[in-house]
Amino acid sequence: MSKEQIKNLETQFEARIARDEKIEPKDWMPEKYRKTHIRQMSQHAHSEIVGMLPESNWITRAPSLRRKVALLAKVQDEAGHGLYLYSATETLGISREELYNQLHTGAAKYSSIFNYPTVTWADMGAIGWLVDGAAIINQVPLCSTSYGPYARAMVRVCKEESFHQRQGYEIMMKLANGTMEQKDLAQDALNRWWWPSLMMLGPTDAESIHTEQSMKWKLKRKSNDDLRQQFIDQTVPQAELIGLTIPDPDLKWNDERGSYDYGKINWEEFWQVVKGHGPCNKERMRARVGAWEEGEWVRDAAMAYAEKKQERKEKQVV
Amino acid sequence: MKENLYNYILGIADNSLILGQRMGELCGHGPSLETDIACTNISLDLLGQVRSYFQYAVKIAGDDRTEDDIAMLRKERDYKNVLLVEQPNLNFAHTIGRQFLFDVYHLAFLAELQKSTDLTLSAIANKCIKEVSYHERFSSDWVKRLGDGTAESKEKIQEAINDLWTYTDELFHQTKADKAMVLECVGVDVTKLKDNYYKRVKDLLEEATLQIPDSKWFQKGGKEGIHTEHLGYLLTDLQYMQRTYPNMEW
Amino acid sequence: MSKKNWPIWEIFVRSKNGLEHRHFGSLHAADAEMALENARDVYTRRNEGVSIWVIESKHITASNPDNNGELFEPAQDKVYRHPTFYDLPDEVKHM
Q1: What share of chain A is helix, strand, coil (3-state, %, to 5)?
Q2: Alpha carbon distance B209, B103 (integer Å)
Q3: Which residue of A has its CA nearest to B239?
Q4: For residues A30 and B97, what is the distance between their CA atoms, to the nearest angstrom?
C-alpha cells in the first residue's frame, strides 16, 4: 500500500470512530491503534489478575463465613475479568501466553496500587470501597470505547463489579460502627489506602502522555484530574457517613467550584512504585510467575491427554 | 439439645469446611485462569454447604452460638472432619487427588442423605448433590488428564493417590453419633458405601491408566478429633480474626 | 513456556429456553469437554445460562470486512423487502 493510500484509510478510520462506529477485530486499523489497544487492554487484564493477590491474602483468614464467601466470589470475579480482557486483547492478534510473558518479564505494567500490602482485615474493606470505587470511575466510560471487543468485555465487567464496592463499603461500615479497636482498624486502612487510590487514577494531566490520542479513540473520556476530582467528591461524603476521616488536612469544600479542594499528592512515591520499588512489587511478580511455571506440567498434561483422545477417536473412525 | 444430631451435623459439615478452606487457598495461584475459577467455584459450593449445615446446627443447639462460633471457635480436638480433607495442597496433583477421593465418597453419601427422615438434612442433601455431582465430574476428568497425560503428570498424580490412599478407609468409619443417627434413620450407614466407593475409584484409576495402591495400612482419627499435624496450621488461619478480636461482629 | 498452549474456544450461551444461543466470549481449554466445563465456570457464574455451545475458534470461517461492499451493500436499496414499502389506506388494520 502506498503512503497516500494508508493516509486515506486512516482518515476514513478516524471518521468512523468520530461517528461512534465500533471497530471490530478484522477491520483495517492503524498499527498504532492496535498497539495502543494491546498495551492498554493487557495492562488492564494484568491489573485484574495481579489485583487478586492482595485480597486472596485474606481469604483463609476472613472473620466470618459470610465474609469469606463474598471475598472468594469477588476475587474469583477478578480472575474472570482478567480472562475477559485477555480474550478481548487476543482478538488483536497476540496470544495470552505472549501477554503473560510481557507481564512476567516486566515489559508490561499493571496498576501500581496492587503493590501495597494488605496488613489487616480492614484492608479488604478499604480495597473494595476505594480501589474498586476508583476502578469503576475509570471503567464505566470504557463501556462505550471504540474497540468492540473491549467495550463488550467492559460491559460485562462493570455489570459484575457492582457488588464489589458495596462489599468493601459494608466491611468498612461494620468496622466503623463496631468497637473502638475495629474503628481504629478502619481508620488505619483508610489512612493507608487513600493516597494510593488517588494516584491510581493516573498522573496529573500535565504529565500524562497518551491522553489526547486516547480521547480520540474513546479509550479515555475524561482526563485523569477530572476522574480524580469525581472520585474525591463522591467518596468524601461516604467516609463522613460512617464517621471516618479522610487523611488530608487540606481537604475542604469549595463552594465556588462545587467540589472538594485537596492536598498535594506525593508523585514521587507513585513513580517509585511504578518503577518497581513498591512494598510488594517483587512478591506479586513471584506469585504470578510461580503460579504460571508450576502450572506448566498441568497445562501440558491436559494438552497431551486431549491429543491422545483425538487420535483414538480418529482411529475408531478408520 | 439433641447431642447426637448436633455432632452428626458437625461431622458432615466439617469435611466441607476444611476442604473448602483448602481449595480457597489456591485462589489466585491456579495453573491457568480457567482452572483457578473452577477451583474457587468448588470452594464456594463447599462453604455454602457448610453454612446450611451450621445454621441448622445453631437451631439444634438452641443457645446463643452462631454459625461462625461453630466454624471458628472450636478447639483442634473438636473438629470432626476426616484426615483426607485436611491434607495440604502440595501441588495440583495432590489437590485433584484429594478432591477426587473425597468427591466419590461425598456424592454417594449425599445420595443416601437425601433419604434421611430428617427433612432439613434431606433438603440440604438435595441441594448439595447437584454441586457435588459437578465436583466429581471435574475431579475425575482431571485425574484422567493427569494420569493419561504426560509421563511427568502421571508420576505426580500416581504419587498423590498413593500418598492419600491411606486416608480413604476412614471415610467408612462410624462414630457414636453416626451409629445413633443410623438407628433413627436420620443418618447414613457409611459402612454400606465402601464397596461401591472402591469399585468406582478403581474403575476410574484404571481408566486414567494409574495403578491402584495395594497398601492395606490406613490412618484414621479425624472423626474422633485426632488430626494430622496439618490441621493446626489451617485452623490458625481460619480462626485468626475470631481469636485475635474476640466477641466482635464483622 | 509450555510446548503447546491451550487453544481458544468461542462460547455461546442460551440464557433461557426460547432464546437463541448468543456469543458470550472466549476462553482457553485443552479439549471440548474442558471448554464446556470452563465455560460453565467462567460465563454462567451468575445463573446466566441453560445451555452452552463451544467451538474451537480456528473452525470459524468469517467474512472479510474488505468485502463488505459487495456482500452487504446490495441489500441496502432493496426496500421492497420491507413492509413499509407498500402504501395502504389507514383504514386497513392488522396487516
Answers
A1: 70, 5, 25
A2: 20
A3: A61
A4: 50
Length of chain A: 318
Do the chains contact at C27 and B38, CB–CB below 8 Å? Answer: no
Is the pLDDT assigned to residue B57 strictly greater than 80? yes
- The order of strands in the sheet holding C51-56 is C21-28, C8-14, C51-56
Asked if ipTM goes beyond 0.95, one says: yes
CB contact under 8 A, B141 and C28: no
The per-residue pLDDT for range A245-290, each reduced to its tens digit, is 999 999 999 999 999 999 999 999 999 999 999 999 999 999 999 9
pLDDT recorded at residue B189: 98
- Given a contact cutoff of 8 angstroms between Cβ atoms, the answer to whether A190 and A247 are in contact is yes
B39 to chain C: nearest residue by CA?
A: C41
Dihedrals phi, psi of A317, to nearest 5 degrees: -65, -40
Q: Contact, A78 vs A115, CB < 8 A?
A: no
Residues contacting A275, CB < 8 A, separation 6+: none
The predicted model scores a pTM of 0.95
pLDDT over 70, % of chain A: 100
Instruction: Kindly give, in sequence order, each residue whose CB lies less than 8 Å from that of residue B58, ignoring residues fewer than 6 positions away.
Output: B65, B66, B67, B70
Residue appearing with cell numbers 497445562: A299
